[in-house]
Automatic annotation (TrEMBL):
This is Phosphopantothenoylcysteine decarboxylase. It comes from the Bacteria. Residues 3-211 form the DNA/pantothenate metabolism flavoprotein C-terminal domain. InterPro entries: CoaB-like_sf, DNA/pantothenate-metab_flavo_C. Gene3D superfamilies: CoaB-like. It holds the Pfam family DFP.
Amino acid sequence: MFSGKKVLITAGPTYEPLDPVRFIGNHSTGKMGFALARCLAEAGAEVSLVSGPTALTLDHALVHITPVMTADEMFAACAKVAPEADLWIFAAAVADYKPKDTATSKIKKSDASFTIELVKNVDIAATLGQQKREDQFAVGFALETDQELENARGKLLKKKLDMVVLNSLRDPGAGFKHDTNKITIVKAASVEEYALKNKDEVAQDILESIKAEWACLQK
Ligand code: CTP
Ligand code: CA
């Protein structure tokens, strides 16, 4: 069903540099995005995987990886591919903020305390959502600790997503660093809860749920 479809996937963290040796980042490993890329390629889709820094590799003729560092670089790479992609999957843990200034030389310590001013990063999913066409399908992820369903539904609307894969940090074995994940899939008219599974099985569940919802796959 995914054969011949063009898919854009974001994965991994972004690193926002403070100086040539330091950055602000997060614990995302990229496993979920890479698992989705592999499953989709095995199903015959042509995958553009835009990934922040990760230790993972993926060698498949149908997967083209663009490695990026910052949210701005990730956005630029996605903007090139997004108009031609049928399916967008935003699995990256994009840093919400970046340092206002990046020093060109290593910042030296002094006796005074040190304050970093942060400015907001581009919201890749929301910005691309503004130009999403009827025939395109967008999937986002949300990692929440409180008011999970309400927040996930908010992201669905705000970012013009067709589906949000919700991870709750309350579930042991879910989220960053684990090989397993426990997800709830939130769509405009439904909520589906899944059991704790490994990330390859979770990727299959996500693809099945996309198939059930995406009108162009029903034809
Ligand atoms: N996302 C994105 N660009 C950003 C931030 C988030 O593309 N700058 C995407 C993520 O890849 C994910 C979705 O938006 O698919 C939700 O990310 P999340 O961090 O949960 O939501 P935020 O809108 O950043 O809100 P908050 O972190 O305050 O919950
Ligand atoms: Ca965020």
